[in-house]
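seq/struct pair 1
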Amino acid sequence: MTTTKSPDARVAAILDQLAARGMRRTSARQAILEALFAAESHVTAEDIAVEVHRRFPSVDVSTVYRTLDTLEQLGIIDHTHLAHGPAIFHLADDDHQHLVCERCGRVEEVAPEKLEPFLEALRAEFDFDVDRRHFALVGICAACRDR
């Protein structure tokens, strides 16, 4: 359920949410949120730190990691591991699953309802609920397979 608010309005709403929980509104937190919203694809903590550091050289990478952790605990963002690389981050309301080619690294986003029959089969057969937010399905894309 992606919202239609502008990125600035969404950043302000998240900062309001943090303030309502007793957390301070800081320029570093705002810059981190703006970097997340400005990203055209998934970003790593290091990507965000580089962007934030351009505007605020005194912000340490540990601040970025702590803020990302807080945002994830609040359900605002999710992290996913794509194969063996670093975790990538995206907004939690942008729900999708990742398919990653282990040869070329191409990432494809899949709507969650496409996986529902598989997840339902796991529930029925193993009484197990998968938390699919933190992992990618790794395989070989058609282009690499055809080479």
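seq/struct pair 2
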Amino acid sequence: MSTIDARGPLPVTRRAQLLEELQRQGTVRVSELTDVLGVTPVTVRRDIAQLANEGLVRRVHGGATLVTADDRPQDGAAPDAAPPAGVPRAAPGGEVALRPVGMLVPSLDYYWPGVVRGAQEEATAHGMRLVLRGSSYETHDDRPQLARLVEQAAVDGLVIAPRMDVPNAPETMAWLVSTGVPVVLVERSATVGLHHAAVESVVSDHALGAAMAVRHLASLGHRKVGLVLSEHSPTGPHVRRGWLEAIGESGADAATTVDVVVPNLRSADFDAALDAALDRCLSTGTTGLLVHADTEAMAFVQRCEQRGLSVPADLSVVAYDDEVAGLFSPQLTAVRPPRLSIGRAAVSLLAARLADPERPAHRVVISPSLRVRESSGPPPAEG
């Protein structure tokens, strides 16, 4: 993309050509201008923003239109490059055009629907239109999806949860910053550049949530609380950190209890991994267990039943996610990340960034909650 721009006209010449196209057509789209000027959509949008700042054009969804006498500011008012966040833009013909913001999440059927709902609610409140795209936990490159949102959907900002554990993640983040499109990370954090500048983000305090679960079980009398994590989960390291901190507070030794990672539920090794974790509970005297995520926790409880163990009489189980934990029997005590609040806060951050591009980067951390249900109780009596 940079090589295309390198062959294109100089900025002053390019903007003059852009104005000539507007004089001929009245309204032009970014996609048309990329062909005419021989540059990328990102460059076209920057030129439009510059000309809008100068009061020469008016930004509309997907492009620009010439400023007419009726559009010019009155009484000394300054022209706007774009309306403030929360103020819908005017489209050609006078209809309202909501500001498009892109959202990319790794799943549309588990955990993330709640985040998306919160984001959609906040977007509506701010006069924005959410352009939602789904990725995958298996993908190794989110850039094509992000590029389509930036270049084809011409979004004004991005709320995204990209893969951060792949080799090209730093390159993708650097590219995103270079586009000039405001970005808010969701349940992810990152830094960019030589000075490791923080990228705006909203995250759940998963470590705190895990610690809450351990403290709950300790308050019931459990002296050994173990941990079972699902493999390759971005949340797992944070949950383990909180578990370790809370175990340390109680004076217990994490090495004397359960600390295992189980493979994907579809793996042929999943049942064996559950058995190994349960054997470890029995051999170490572990009576409480924090399991991420809900589906793994439910499978673990079922495995206990198959082996003649009762939950919570023999083993208390706390799930992490609370997506479907309350629907199980017994209803699972669970840590609930603040999904709706995460989505709302992310879009709110993006709206604030669009309204004030020079404001400092904000990193928001939101606390989860603990829902106590039937799967946790006092440990079995010794003897």
